[in-house]
């Protein structure tokens, strides 16, 4: 049995080096979870950023998943979340 990789804390995520667009997306998703208790859709994130296209928003979210500050389930809507939010149905 392998040990599960430990997720970053909120402070560690906020201290990570990100581009301004990545930081904007991170803060939008973080605040959305704190306010509503569920994930924003890609369209919600794009609208909050003042953008129309979903492709670039999807690439930013995917890059944040690669950096290790977000988790998501491919093919399912509204599953993007910061790694420090524990939600057992998304593991």
Compile the SSE list and pairings.
Blueprint: H1 10-15, H2 20-36, H3 42-49, H4 55-67, E1 70-71, E2 81-82
Antiparallel strand pairs: 1-2
Helix pairs in contact: 2-4
How does this structure look, described?
With 91 residues, the chain is mostly helical. The radius of gyration is 13 Å and the shape is globular. The protein has four helices and two strands. Helices cover 48% and strands 4% of the residues. The mean pLDDT is 86. A two-stranded antiparallel ribbon has the order 1-2. The chain starts with 9 loop residues before the first helix and ends in a 9-residue tail after the last strand.
What is this structure, in a nutshell?
By secondary structure, this protein is mainly alpha-helical. It has four helices and two strands, in the order H-H-H-H-E-E.
Helices and strands: which structural class?
mainly alpha
Beta percentage is under 5%
* Terminal residue distance: 17 Å
What oligomeric state do the depicted chains represent?
A: single chain
List the uncertain runs: none
Helix fraction bin: 40-55%
How many β-strand runs? Answer: 2
- The arrangement of helices and strands along the chain is HHHHEE
Main beta sheet: 2 strands, antiparallel
Overall shape: globular
Widest sheet: strand order? 1-2
As a whole number of angstroms, the C-alpha radius of gyration is 13 Å
Mean pLDDT over all positions: 86
Number of helices: 4
